[in-house]
Amino acid sequence: MASSSQSFLPHSPSLTSLSHSSPSSSSSSSSSTIKSLIIQSSPTTTHYPIRRRLLGRRRSFSLRSVQDEVSAYVDPPPPPPPPEDERSPSFELLPYLKLKLLSAVSGVNRGLAANEEDLRKAEDAAKELEGVAGKVDLSKDLDKLQGRWKLIYSSAFSSRTLGGSRPGPPTGRLLPITLGQVFQRIDILSKDFDNIVDLEFGAPWPFPPIEVTATLAYKFELIGTSSIKITFEKTTVKATGNLSQLPPLDLPRLPDGLRPQSNPGSGEFEVTYLDDDTRITRGDRGELRVFVIS
Predict the structure, then answer these.
(1) Nearest CA-CA partner of 268 in 234, 221, 225
(2) In this structure, which topology does domain 84-293 adopt according to CATH?
(3) What is the 3-state secondary structure (H, E, C) of 58-71?
(4) What does the alpha-carbon distance between residue 7 and residue 272 come to, in Å, rounded to a whole number?
(5) Which tens digit of pLDDT belongs to each residue from 139-172?
(6) Quick one: which of 148, 161, 153, 94 has its CA closest to 122?
(7) Measured between alpha carbons, how far is 189 from 96 in angstroms, rounded to an integer?
(8) Does residue 266 sit in helix, strand or coil?
(9) How far is residue 86's CA from residue 277's CA, in Å, rounded to a whole number?
(10) Which residues, 6 or more positions from 195, have their beta carbon under 8 angstroms from its beta carbon?
């Protein structure tokens, strides 16, 4: 929100009458009196309380002094925020609400360490941002999906399973699996939609843990204006770390007759907020996810 400058001009009747009505033939003593009055009415004294009240704001203070005029320019304080029922993106609420959401989902290990209070705060912050930003129209903004996105929060991870709201292996319970970074790689031209997950499997001592990157490849299509349907194709597992020299292993999609009902090979989610660096999605099972561009 651009700031404007406001001029504060001293209006002293005695100074005005003296400086504009004195004849050119006035004596040197009158001239000295005028100069003394100008110095005494300098804004460095009269306007200093104003400057002091503007703590915390950027101030520009320029002084122009001649025999009959003194001007001071000070950036005005910001206007008060509008009433809550009148707020809109025009008051630059979106950056504040984005920061509020990112703060709410920080420190919970992408949701794996979230408790009920953490889930509530994240949900409330997401709803507030979604409400102010309005509905997403991917028919116009599909190009904003392009790129590699880092998952920073999933409400389903609070279930402590890698499947989230769907069945999946547990973390830190029966199996020594550590979840690393999670990314989504989206190509709007080829319609590729890859979920990329770094995993670490514990091994008996003295062997080091096994590190792998699993890439779950999907194709996506736009449904309506803000929903996306993904269809699973294959999973590629690539060893990293000490075993990075091993070739990747492709796990093809199971035939429909052999695939469990809980894993139909496709899914849908809605993009509820999207800008150049932040994305919010809501899954078909109510899962809230927050991504940032990486």
Answers:
(1) 221
(2) Lipocalin (2.40.128)
(3) CCCCCEEECCCCEE
(4) 45
(5) 999 999 999 999 999 999 887 555 554 545 555 5
(6) 153
(7) 33
(8) strand
(9) 27
(10) 182, 183, 184, 215, 216, 218
